[in-house]
Prior knowledge:
Layout: E1 3-7, E2 10-13, E3 18-25, E4 33-38, E5 45-50, E6 56-58, E7 66-71, E8 76-81, E9 90-97, E10 112-115, E11 119-124
Parallel strand pairs: 2-11
Antiparallel strand pairs: 1-3, 3-8, 4-5, 4-9, 5-6, 7-8, 9-10, 9-11
Amino acid sequence: QVQLLESGGGSVQAGGSLRLSCAVSGYHSGGSLGWFRQAPGKEREGVAVLQATGTTNYADFVKGRFTVSGDNAKKMVYLQMTGLTPEDTAMYYCGAEGPGTWQYRFLDRRRYKYWGQGTQVTVSS
């Protein structure tokens, strides 16, 4: 059974930083792991992805501010967020790629089958 558990969210002021963590267990497909976010009334959108090859993908709105990384030995994926703005306020989810979803882009949520419960990030101005 695949389980993803996010942590590290919180409330910060604009310009602040947070580091999100995702603990992955039971996932043996070797697919991509990604961070997504969903604000109230909006669709879930891709933020950053760590491919199995180590290649990373970022949404344009976080380039230069967020960094995704992983630790295979610890089965962890991280999202270092800097320069946070109120527009970054959302629930952040960790996702693991599902089988047969290769036709979707890496930042497309349809590529991911397994999800954590999310961790809330709130940025105040």
